[in-house]
Amino acid sequence: MQYTAAVITVSDKGSRGERVDTSGPAVCRLLEDAGFKVVHTAIVPDEKEQIQAELIRCADEQHIALVMTTGGTGFSQRDITPEATLAVIEREARGIPEAMRWASFQITPRGCLSRSAAGIRGKTLIVNLPGSEKAARENLLAVIDAIVHGMDMLFSDGSTEHHHHHDHHSG
Q1: DSSP assignment, residue 2?
Q2: Of 78, 115, 120, 158, which cross-links 46 as Cys (Cβ 3.0–4.6 Å)?
Q3: Is the distance from CB of 59 to CB of 126 less than 8 angstroms?
Q4: Is the pLDDT of residue 170 over 90?
């Protein structure tokens, strides 16, 4: 099954056109390489209400399976993407950001400073990535295979047995 995805860049400068967004397109490419169909992208400022509204729109109205955000996960006063995410999800998926931080920490001791969150709203998985293109790529690559498996579970019939459908994939 091909899952839909959205990539939301959270950036004051990006939303004002003062900075070219490289992280968003890089995340789109990685998702497409992993077999996702990117159906929506947006750039929003570091404003909690706008981030929440965009996430809710993607989940409730567009029914997008995977929503990745990039940006707003650091320590600066304007970094509130995790708070906006936690406000709209129904169930946390803490292992995803834990794994991303662990992978980042292998590359730089500053990896532990990422405040990324992840969770599920309905049938939508929302995952925060850091804002830098390099960190966003590293973080996503660390968890993309697990995320695909998580999507399979989210969209399965809900039985405890998980069947692998590898023989049905062509190519």
Answers
A1: P
A2: 78
A3: yes
A4: no
